[in-house]
Task: structure prediction
Amino acid sequence: MTAHPQHLRLTTVDTVDSLRIEVHGDLDYDSAGLLLTEVTAQLAARPALMDLHLHCARLGTVDSTGLSVLLMIGRRTSAAGVRLHLDARPAKLDRLLRLTGTLDHLTAPAPDGAVRASATEESVVASPNGPDGTT
Result:
């Protein structure tokens, strides 16, 4: 018997300042771009968005591309000042996020007093000049 991949299906439910995307199926090389495209379009179309909920109860397999897309979504929501929530995570997703060290990165609450970033602002990380980190 040959196992066929579950095609990714997204269901979007929105309110004034919150968006919920229910993820059904596998988040993998063949399908992860669909989720990234949907999230990117929603972020662009809704500048007042405060919370993005990815409902993961029916999420199937997540491969390295799927994980990469989740991390990219985390960066894009953070840059837009939107809180990302990974709701109803299956145990296998939590296990993957723990093994890769990304669980806290993707699920930690936003720091108090976080300010929405301007679309033109860029984060700049200072790097040390000398070999021992001194200037």
